[in-house]
TrEMBL record:
UniProt GO MF annotations: DNA binding
Organism: Crossiella cryophila
Pfam families xref list: TetR_N
PROSITE patterns reported for this sequence: HTH_TETR_2 (PS50977)
Name of the protein this chain belongs to: AcrR family transcriptional regulator
Length: 193
């Protein structure tokens, strides 16, 4: 089982690298497998298809974002501090050298979701999971009025803040100057509503 997990990780890393270099349409299974030091049979054995490998790459990207923001679970952080850590982490991720091609890849895969119900379902599950994890980090914290954020409000805040930050991430990726303080001010304004 250890070997399969290691091969899965190697294939995900190779796929991510090839997608960044070539785009997902140019990411042939042979090139990905070769980069990972494996065969295309390993891709089919582990993922089942190229589509499932590509979706797994998106899942891995989202998993990494959440892992990078593990400090959100620190109970000592205030609601506003959690929002600040989230905003800073997401905007920092937008500055990474591979951020633009990976966002383009995710956007293209979202386009494919319009005609492929499997892709649509899996991408929706990834998004819902990410929102839920962020919402969990907001739940139970007190806002500036001293009110405890319940699950319902946390869900709304997570969705709204993520959408706001995603819009500014895209602007940053296009080379626009997007001050982190401005994005944080807007996110905190949402919290105070």
């Amino acid at each position: 089982m250890e070997g399969k997990a290691r091969n899965r990780t190697a294939l995900l890393e190779a796929a991510r690298e090839v997608i960044v270099e070539e785009g997902h349409r140019g990411a042939s299974l042979g090139v990905i497998a070769g980069r990972a030091g494996l065969t295309t049979g390993a891709i089919y054995s582990i993922f089942g298809s190229k589509r499932d490998l590509l979706i797994a790459v998106i899942e891995d990207i989202h998993r990494r974002v959440i892992a990078d923001l593990q400090q959100l679970s620190d109970p000592r952080l205030s609601l506003e501090q959690v929002i600040a850590v989230y905003v800073a982490g997401r905007l920092r991720a937008a500055d990474a050298k591979d951020a633009a091609p990976l966002l383009a890849f995710e956007t293209e895969l979202s386009g494919l979701a319009q005609s492929d119900p499997v892709v649509s379902t899996r991408l929706r599950e990834i998004s819902v999971r990410s929102d839920r994890q962020f919402a969990e980090s907001l739940t139970g914290r007190r806002d500036e009025r001293g009110l405890v954020v319940d699950e319902r409000r946390a869900g709304y805040l997570a969705l709204g803040v993520r959408a706001l930050v995603l819009g500014f991430e895209q602007r940053r990726l296009r080379g626009e100057a997007v001050p982190e303080a401005m994005v944080l001010d807007l996110a905190i304004a949402m919290v105070r509503q």
